[in-house]
Amino acid sequence: MTDITDPLVHDENDVQISAPKTYAAGIPAVLVSLRHGLEQMGPVRTARTLAKLNQRHGFDCPGCAWPETPGHRKLAEFCENGAKAVAEEATTRTVDPGFFARHAVSELLERTDYWLGRQGRLTHPMIVRPGSDHYEPIGWDEAYAVIAEHLRAVADPDEAIFYTSGRTSNEAAFVYQLMIRAFGTNNMPDCSNMCHESSGTALAETIGIGKGSVSVTDLEHADLIIVAGQNPGTNHPRMLSVLEKAKANGAKVIAVNPLPEAGLLRFKDPQKVHGVVGDGAQITDEFLQIRLGGDQALFQGLAKLLLEAEDRAPGTVLDRDFLDSECAGFEQWAEHIRAVDLDTVLAATGLTRTQLDTTAEALIASRATIICWAMGLTQHTHGVATIQDAVALLLMRGMIGKPGAGVCPVRVHSNVQGDRTMGIWEKAPEPFLRALDDEFGIRTPRRHGYDAVEAIRAMRDRTASVFMAMGGNFLSATPDTDVTAAALRTCALTVQVSTKLNRSHLVHGTTGIILPSLGRTDTDIRAGRKQVVSVEDSMSVVHLSRGGLKPASKHLRSEVAIVCELAQHLFGPDHPVPWARFADDYDAIRDAIARVIPGFEDFNTRVRQPDGFVLPHPPRDERRFTTTTGKANFVVNDLYWLPVPEGRVILQTLRSHDQYNTTIYGLDDRYRGITAGRRVLFINTHDIAALGFTAGQRVNLISEWPRPDGTVEERRAENFRLVPYPTPVGNVAAYYPETNPLVPLDHVARKSNTPVSKAITIRLEARPTSDDAAKAVHPDPDPSPA
User: Fold this and answer.
1) Which of 42, 151, 196, 418 is 20 to 30 Å from 642 by CA-CA measure?
2) Would you give the end-to-end CA distance of the chain in angstroms?
């Protein structure tokens, strides 16, 4: 192939700034979707692919985990970012051995993540050998032999780390964790550790299961929906259709977010007349522009107002029957909440007393309330406590286990919830491990393994020497980029199972291997039969995903086959797990899952129903809570918030509208008014003036992290343009992965160990005004076709 380049040169100094949009989707979303499809796939492949996306007999979107509406499929059952995700995976561009012969690893490291991703699908297994600066082809059997040799050479299985991306199917995840545990370790960091681990931790302690309790139907029939720390217009656009329907049914929507995102304001559904020629639908009834990290204060303040309302009119606010029969710890929690100072709540949130009172009144009036959230809540030091206080706000009114009410953590990766269900967890419970042992006649380890942060520390400290990733872009997804890169380079071997080129391939161990895999869109033929996989969405629905496109290369293998074939090389032919059978028959894997994991009984039959099946959820289904008390728990948490230090601002990292997680689709952020650039800092005009800068000025960002000895540790990210934006005073925002280097490895949430990427104290440093300094960002050739 020829590299996807263009005579044009991209320069971050060419970024254009315009007014943010006041609505999401509409005709522009359709046009952008088509443009990405045509550029990457061509007209015929675009039509064939999008017609099958999220359809009953098609394939699941490789983007987010938002569920389909039961019993209904639109002709175009996808959003703009789903179309972009498919275009990236189903592209006709390829990265073959000739590409790696032309480009040294050191050269590719100078390219941006955007350029790397646009080069196309990986086609062959590749290896970079010790001392080499080039990847070269390697046969599958030889690659497996090299990996098996390194794994057998470790002194202890815990010296190996196995990462998992949330796009991995249920079947691949199950055999992957089975191989890892058969090898002898629970070192299974995954993307949940960086995103929703705080949700799982908080929910397990309060309601006994780390999953959301609502369905799409519940959302459509709720009275009140609170959307906190979430930007559905970019991250889960199909959610807007559900919110629009809920509004039509009479629901009130309250958005809680530091930024006034377009998708929280108005939605123009391009599949409806009023979304094309009209004004669309207003989504948010009330917008609470909260300060970063102020959500816990909001939930505690609202709970205090509800308790006071109950005192004024006993029996009208609290669900006493539910509290007395199904809950534990309420009185101690209520005593703590009554002592909360509302002036502190207002200072922590930046809201007015009127906003607080209005929201409390909405909660009291609602007969069915749902609270939705995403990483705006989870990626804080007090993320677990914040979610527990949100749950308490629902429990005090009995808003769980009833239609139209409950908790709704909105997951990111398309199967991140399913991966955890399949056992991708460094702290898997004893009943699951015992079931694996009984099914396969093996002895799985019981010692807890490393999560993502602990895995980086282990590699940094040279107590781990082999790193394998099943999908994803570990380096760009994790915090403290320089530390993570140095940690990966300490390894004797790094292995990446991938569909596309990314930065993690270029920051490798002494030996680095790339194993190219089939994607969600590809046809998977094994033993002469078309194989299908399954996924679990954000609302515990399990359904099939059937790829139908011709693979980019005859050398590609499925993730299931890669794991099973590697296991055969690692364990030999006499291992009790039937790896060869699993590699060729995914139904056999599902039969094993059915015997190991509760809720998957008769898996193969039920998953082939038109809409799949819903996994059991005791709090939702029968108001049964499998907690330590056997009841729903109120947890007392001290109120925490982060005042803005003098001369500093608090940074949150976020995505642009032209990216999904670490995949950069383009250099625009249409909804926020950014064109042709990513190194921008959204900042309030008051802060620009107070800190002595001017709009549009280029600055360096320096994060400040206090060490235990009282000194301050600094990290840098350079050359960001100041963009005036309606953020809360003292709060700023910028894109990741560009700002990941600012997040200290040890800056983590209590209990969940999730990196705190939404509350980083930084100062701004003016850049020199010379032309050389202004053009410090490496200029990449525009990868789009001329």
Assistant:
1) 196
2) 16
CA dist., res. 628 & res. 747, Å (int): 29
Give the tens place of pLDDT for each residue, 595-630: 999 999 999 999 999 889 999 999 999 999 999 999
Which residue bears the tokens 């909001």?
Answer: 298
Closest CA to 589 of 59, 176, 168, 65: 176
Is the pLDDT reported for residue 9 higher than 50?
no
Backbone angles phi, psi at 515, to 5 degrees: -110, 110
Nearest C-alpha neighbor of 511 from the set 486, 481, 490, 485:
490
Q: What percentage of the chain carries pLDDT values higher than 70? A: 87
Kindly give, in sequence order, each residue whose CB lies less than 8 Å from that of residue 122, ignoring residues fewer than 6 positions away. Answer: 94, 95, 498, 499, 500, 501, 514, 516, 552
All domains in the chain, ordered by first residue: 22-89 (no CATH), 113-191+415-584 (3.40.50.740), 197-409 (3.40.228.10), 649-781 (2.40.40.20)
> What radius of gyration do the chain's Cα atoms show?
25
Q: What pLDDT digit, counting tens, does each position of 429-475 carry? A: 999 999 999 999 999 999 999 999 999 999 999 999 999 999 999 99
* The two structure tokens encoding residue 98: 């000739």
- Rounded to whole angstroms, how far apart are CA atoms 628 and 634? 12
Distance CA 479, CA 80 (A): 28
Say how many C-beta atoms besides its own lie within 10 A of residue 350's C-beta: 20
pTM here?
Answer: 0.93
Residue 779 has pLDDT above 50, yes or no: no
What span, in angstroms and rounded, lies between the C-alpha atoms of 223 and 15? 43
Is the bond leading into 429 cis (omega within 30 degrees of zero)? no
Residues 6+ apart with CB under 8 A from 592: 174, 439, 440, 582
Where in 449-520 does DSSP place strands (E)? 466-470, 493-498, 511-516
pLDDT tens digits along 472-517:
999 999 999 999 999 999 999 999 999 999 999 999 999 999 999 9
User: Cβ contacts of residue 107 below 8 Å, gap of 6+?
Assistant: none
- The secondary structure element, H or E, covering residue 654 is strand 649-654
DSSP code of 239?
A: H
pLDDT score, position 521: 86
CA distance 755 to 13: 30
In three-state secondary structure terms, 27 is: helix
**Would you place residue 55 in the very low, low, confident or very high pLDDT band (cuts 50, 70, 90)?**
low
CA distances from 387 to 266, 297, 634, 752, 757 (A): 27, 11, 11, 12, 16
Q: Give, for 127, the enclosing helix (H) or strand (E).
A: strand 126-128
In residues, how long is the chain? Answer: 786
**Closest among 580, 197, 603, 565 to 417, alpha carbons compared:** 197
CB atoms inside a 10 Å sphere around CB 771: 8
Instruction: State which of 71-75, 584-588, 705-709 shows the largest mean pLDDT.
Output: 584-588
Phi, psi of 107, rounded to the nearest 5 degrees: -70, -45
Asked if the bond preceding 62 is cis, omega within 30° of 0, the reply is: no
CB neighbour list of residue 156: distance below 8 Å, 6 or more residues apart: none
Please give the full DSSP string across 483-498, using - where no structure is assigned: HHHHHHHT-SEEEEEE
